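Lab notebook, bench 4. The sequencing result for the construct came back, and we need a structural model before the next group meeting so we can plan mutations. Quick request posted to the team channel:

Model the 3D structure of this chain.
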Amino acid sequence: MKTLKNKTLAIAFLMISSIGANAQDFHYGIKSGANFAVQSEIANYFDNNNIRTGLSAGAFGNYGINNWLTLQAELNYDQKGGNTETTTNKYDYLTVPVLAKFSLGKSDRSDLRFNINVGPYAGYLLNAESDIEGVTTDLKDNTEGFEFGAIGGFGVSYPIANNKIVFDVRMGLGLTSYDKVDSDPSNKYIGVTLGYEF
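Done. Here's the predicted structure in token form:
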């Protein structure tokens, strides 16, 4: 697991360094929105209504390879977890996605541009706690400090002068368990964010 962490950090660092090499094709931005998160077995995604609504905020940098492919690295603060009638599980991560964005072209009736994006992410645990009817319990000792997962999503951008407003809807799936004792459950979320690209 330690090797996987180091490789993920190295890939993200190299990508961010390389996409900055040609300033003409490099863009950066900020974004913020909400995560709608659950915790359950990998195969059990849509059949779970125990949703924790949390914050998603971060920064990104991307490099246009050509007219249809862009590589994007991000550094995000993501709130995940789950919720029941009496308990809210709060798991907060520093997340590093590395995404390939495939352009779907421009709208015929407006300047809107569409894309799909997919790629892996690494998550580093910042906080883990359970709130049971107002009583908070620290769960960090029982929680894995690293999470590896995959992201797939859909994006829209709208140009303003030389910049862009960007809107993304994405699904994140943890491929490793967050729990040190139970290897079955993982973090899953649907994230909705609005951002500005310079």
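The chain is about 10% helix and 65% strand.
Will bring this to the meeting.
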